[in-house]
Amino acid sequence: MSEAEALRSRAEDLAAPFPPLLAAAEHLAATVILGEHGRRRAGLGDEFWQYRPALPGDEARMIDWRRSGRSDVHYVREKEWQAAQSVSLWVDTAQSMNFRSAKAPRSKSEAAALLALAAAVLLVRGGERVGHTNSGLPPRAGNQQLARLSALLGAPDEADFGAPEIRGLPHHGRTLFISDFLGDISAVEAAVTSASDRDISGALVQVLDPEEEAFPFDGRTIFESMGGSLSHETLRARDLRDRYLDRLAARKAALGDLARATGWQMATFHTDKPMSSALLWIFAALERTH
């Protein structure tokens, strides 16, 4: 089994306990419906919805003369309003995502790819279109798209830290950004703000290793970026702990503020915790971003 096939298999196993990502009842009346089902109201679309008696003001071209010929009442043939939703994934594959401590069963990169593909499985099962912004893969539906995604997710980036790619995001769609978000915060702010200005809603999923939360270092320690371009040596690592944790808390707060300001969702998950809880949050968050 290839690495891509193994990733897809694990993602499908993770997605298995969850039902298809279907719209809640209120979404049926007020928002774009998932997949090919359309919104349950009259409008532009291809699927027949219902006949209704003609009303004053209806144009003659709207009358269905074949149906009307079987009764004394003129009927209008209505089609169901349809607009399939597009969900675009950006998954950070920069060097920082390769970090994995001894306590973690997987690297941040592996966790991010697994979550992204599991979310894609749920979305495709719900009839939605899913794309991949890193590679420029446009949103499409179907199992073939899952195969394409599994082959693309995890393709490495040589940069130390990643920045969201938003080129090609469909207007009025949804997006999911998965990263440690430890790089330049201004790049994330610019991407989310630009997307929001185009009526694109979404969710930020921050993936961290447990050691990045605990900072268990003491004594002489050499800190290096995963790409090796940054290095810092200290004889008293514990003295850095409070400042580091303050900066990490400030970064989380900044991401939360950004999400609230743009109507997005944001949460942090850890690579030593069950991925199913993170997927459940994504499941709910994408519904809230309709």
Strand order of the largest sheet: 6-5-4-7-8-11
N- to C-terminal distance = 37 Å
| Percent of residues in beta strands | 15-25%
Count of discrete alpha- or pi-helical segments spanning 4 or more residues: 9
Structural class category:
alpha/beta
Please tell me how large the radius of gyration is: 23 Å
Low-confidence stretches: 18-48
Instruction: Please provide the count of β strands.
Output: 11
How would a textbook summarize the main sheet?
A: 6 strands, mixed
Structural shape: elongated
Give the mean pLDDT. Answer: 77
Order of helices and strands: HHEEHEEHEEHEHEHEEHEH
* Helix amount: 25-40%
Question: Which features characterize this protein?
Answer:
290 residues, alpha/beta, six-stranded mixed β-sheet, three-stranded antiparallel β-sheet, 20% strand, elongated
